[in-house]
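Notes from hallway chat w/ T.B., transcribed later so I don't forget. T.B. wanted the structure written out for a chain they're using in a teaching module, and asked if we could keep both sequence and structure tokens in one place. Agreed to drop them here.
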Amino acid sequence: MGRCNIKHPQTGEWRCWSTIVDNWVSDWMSEADYKRWLIDEATRQVAAEIEAYGIKEARFQTYNDCIYNLAMQEHCEKCKDRFDKCDDCDYNITVEAYIEQGDDYFHLGLI
């Protein structure tokens, strides 16, 4: 949607202009009212998308990734080297490699 926030030069009120329909899509409002209108409008748009398409699942982050990353963070916080040797650390592997090696040393139950 091509929408623009337009501020009236004399009154300081705000209004939304649509370049799609070349017309106003809101009334003139104070800044506070216009902010609320923008939030309500964005909420309506997101709600309509969710109704039409459902909740979009993350494409690059899985449940296993989340659980493993949390375990790695906890491990790294306790590490005596404190990030000095992260690149060479035996624990610094992907969740896929962690599952593939089959040693559930973080006790995550992913294997």
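Follow-up for T.B.: The two ends are 45 Å apart (CA to CA). Might be a good example for the class.
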